[in-house]
TrEMBL record:
InterPro entries attached to this UniProt entry: Acyl_CoA_acyltransferase (IPR016181), GNAT_dom (IPR000182), Ribosomal_N-acetyltransferase (IPR051908)
PANTHER family according to UniProt: ACETYLTRANSFERASE, RIBOSOMAL-PROTEIN-SERINE ACETYLTRANSFERASE
Biological source species: Streptomyces murinus
Name the record gives this protein: RimJ/RimL family protein N-acetyltransferase
Annotated TM spans: none
Domain of life: Bacteria
Keyword Transferase: yes
Cited Gene3D superfamilies: 3.40.630.30
Amino acid sequence: MTSTFPNISISTERLVLRPLDEDDVPALAEMMNDEQVAAWTDVPQPFTEAGARRWITGQAPAERAAGRGLDLAVTEFLTQRLVGIVQLTRTDWRIRATELSYIVAPWARGEGYASEAALATARWLFGDQRFERIELRTAADNTASQQVAQKIGCISEGVLRNACIVHVRTEDGGWADLRTDFIVWSLLPEDLEGADEQLADTGGFTSYADWN
């Protein structure tokens, strides 16, 4: 029997992490067309609303059902506006490990939302789901993503040389691939000690299983 993540909602003082919904299509498409998202991820460009709908109604449910991962919308608690996405991928249920990544909308950057969402997800994984390891991979020059990893208590384990492809603008306005290194980070349950102090201004969170 394949192990799968439940449909859940995770709440912090400022955020709600929940399953993606078709109402998220316009905001998701807008967010994924941002220059920084295009540069640091493999999201197709331009990213259309049709692509967002396929992700929400097909790809995300299929990944969860197969036990490979989980996609969560990150929304503001008060406005319900889409702040970003948290993804769990490459999940190994035998060793209770998964890879975590995050994307934040341009308008929401600089507010600590990525750290708050990532930490809440980590607490849920280590607590409710009894996971033992979370892995993050950041491109060598993606300092913003690296700062998030450090802020939630991740430990840098090393470098995967030439293992990452990022994207740069070409003279004609298109995108070209550029090969670089991956920095590998890990987070274990004991690494969360002290993370609360770093994010004390964002408050705690509660999780609710089987959301919707």
